[in-house]
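TL;DR need structure tokens for one chain.
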Amino acid sequence: LFRSIYGQNNNTNPSYQEYYDFFNSFINPDSIETFNLSNTPDFYYILDKTSSIFKDSTFSPEDTLFIKKQILMGRKFNWIEGKLLGAKIINGKEIHNYFKKDIGDGWNKYYKKYKSGFRSYSLPLFSVGKSKCVVFESWHCGGLCGYGYILLYIKTNGKWERKGSYLSYRN
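>> reply
TL;DR here they are.
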């Protein structure tokens, strides 16, 4: 089925550089703020069966298949230090280890080392023509502190513009 939609040429898959270019396009190089980022892309809320991103008319059935293919391929991806402007990359397994026994004590130990919370991003997941994109972004700052959004972007005149969000949570 993928061959009939995309042909045999696999060049339509986003490159790793496109992932970084997407996020870096929102950062002003003259005022880069440093932030902690888990190296592991977070797809949980996009994969959640209640997610409405695949239920409206924004994405065609072909787009939906292409996005799901990107999620499968993206599970092996890790964010790399120095590629995403301002990001201090933290190993996702290390973050998990802080919190697996006691969340409160885990945050104390985490903050002692890293001084501020951390972000998690999914990969930007593009439509077939790469004119639309969804991305999950979250901020973690304590046991009952944080937020997360699935954001929709549309490329207009060569620039990505946020057009809406599908899901959010806030602690």
